[in-house]
Amino acid sequence: MESMNFAAILVAAVSALVMGFIWYNPKVFGTAWMKVADMSEEKMKGANMAKIFIMAFIFAVLLAMSIMPMVIHQMGAFSLAQGELGVQPSYEAFMAEYANEFRTFKHGAFHSVLAGVFIALPILGTNALFERKSAKYILINSGYWVVTMGLMGAIICGWQ
User: Fold this and answer.
1) How far apart are CA 17 and CA 52, in angstroms?
2) How many helices (H) and strands (E) does the chain have?
3) How big is the CA angle at 41 (ends 121 and 23), to the nearest 5 degrees?
4) Over its length of 160 residues, how does the chain's per-residue pLDDT go in tens digits?
5) At 82, phi and psi to the nearest 5?
């Protein structure tokens, strides 16, 4: 548990981009999002899409790294068991007993959806209110993050 599962982090980050392609597709919420975000095809044409997707991927990696300790509770035990001289024997005993407890896709999705509702929604909602955006805008964007964070947490927690 001392190290992060970088393969799971990268796959979770990619899943955020894949979910974005699905969620913001015109046949799903893309058309509605463009309307409430005051976005047009013309505005989108001038964008540097390579830069946008590279930065979106970097942000998704950072988010995945932040989700990991929320969904894998053993990481908290590791931080508690560290002493000035290194990992304490109590940690080894704990891990021998509970190393794989609550390490499921369902558990990761549950905690990540909660994080989406209690972290992403308030942040996006507050920004949207000050930007004078509609409730529909808030629901489309925060809905994406709640679902995406659920998927990311499932990948991170369930991948052992």
Assistant:
1) 11
2) 9, 2
3) 35
4) 456 899 999 999 999 999 999 999 999 999 999 999 999 888 888 889 999 999 999 999 999 999 999 998 777 777 777 766 677 777 778 777 877 788 899 999 999 999 999 999 999 999 999 999 999 999 999 999 999 999 999 999 999 8
5) -75, 135
